[in-house]
Hints:
It is built from 14 helices and 21 strands.
Amino acid sequence: xxxxxxxxxxxxxxxxxxxxxxxxxxxxxxxxxxxxxxxxxxxxxxxxxxxxxxxxxxxxxxxxxxxxxxxxxxxxxxxxxxxxxxxxxxxxxxxxxxxxxxxxxxxxxxxxxxxxxxxxxxxxxxxxxxxxxxxxxxxxxxxxxxxxxxxxxxxxxxxxxxxxxxxxxxxxxxxxxxxxxxxxxxxxxxxxxxxxxxxxxxxxxxxxxxxxxxxxxxxxxxxxxxxxxxxxxxxxxxxxxxxxxxxxxxxxxxxxxxxxxxxxxxxxxxxxxxxxxxxxxxxxxxxxxxxxxxxxxxxxxxxxxxxxxxxxxxxxxxxxxxxxxxxxxxxxxxxxxxxxxxxxxxxxxxxxxxxxxxxxxxxxxxxxxxxxxxxxxxxxxxxxxxxxxxxxxxxxxxxxxxxxxxxxxxxxxxxxxxxxxxxxxxxxxxxxxxxxxxxxxxxxxxxxxxxxxxxxxxxxxxxxxxxxxxxxxxxxxxxxxxxxxxxxxxxxxxxxxxxxxxxxx
Length: 505
């Protein structure tokens, strides 16, 4: 990276959000941009998560860009290797490689009010940008709890998102900490090879069958020959999930039938009533993410698996000790304990117009106008920002809506002309957040009786979107300049750092 390089747009991250932003920039005729990536390859979470059994729980044809349909998905639910290959394909087909700056971790981003641009310091050099699009994603930085004695554990310790493939777990005694989306894939994948698997379950998840199958050759051939069939398949998958949203957002009591299906799924595989009792959640289904697996419960019923209905509290040498006092000797500890979602580390590295970091601004809880713009951070946008997550559909739909918003944001800057920036008004951010939180009150995520990673340290749901993807698409179709302050560069020789102009004036 050239010293003091300047670009129109700097994108951060090369997962779906970052690559999608890069594609959209090119389609908008903008080629003066770079994509900064801390790793040595593209792929985001699908590059980082290589644990045994890693796969997506959203159907393949819905978990892909609408502008880059893939007729050759091998399975209805694709594995990590296929999704990563798809993202590599997107980078090649859309000519993104020249824009990539790999091994360029962002260390600090500071708003320069005098020049109306961002100063970005990376591990490979410095640059400036008129606009920053942050697409680091909420599932980027693993969270490992602070467990007393963990540092002195003599065996292997790693997080599911940083799987240590040098560690051979065959014949070993393994502790699996956590029962989230990663854990329910890891457990059945490693269970046949380990001597003993001890699962620390703080809260049992609701699990429905994962109806996965290979997509036949004739199906793939049809999709190649008639692309409209791929779009129809995607549309059907989308429509089914749109119809489900009402139960999550307005009528959680209607989810009782789904709970009965989940209990029947458990009963088919787990015959021991005591084990079934440990595995049965005491909260409304959907409050935490509904997990999909057809081999998780069968794995837990095997004789070399122990389910401890308590979280890991302490490590004493090779002994792992649960909060309920249960002890077990193990050779390796695998954490499936999630990510820094509501306290993303990148927020510590973004310094806005008033000298405060994004983390300081969001100390009372994340909030951004239409999930994209934070007050006090001009010409900065985030993809998969606050309250843009989904509990039952594909995040690619939300990402594409945010890309529409990003594209119009850049169009507005071009129309305004000159050295100009848009800064979300605090009143607009507050009004948007109030509307979102009011809608959130009746959703299953707030009323279902659980504590989930959707909630921040204050108990507020700053993660999930309380509506349909259609509603979000409508809300992000255009930038409303009345929700922004327009910042213009000072006249030559002026000591004033910036001039705030009423939108539309």
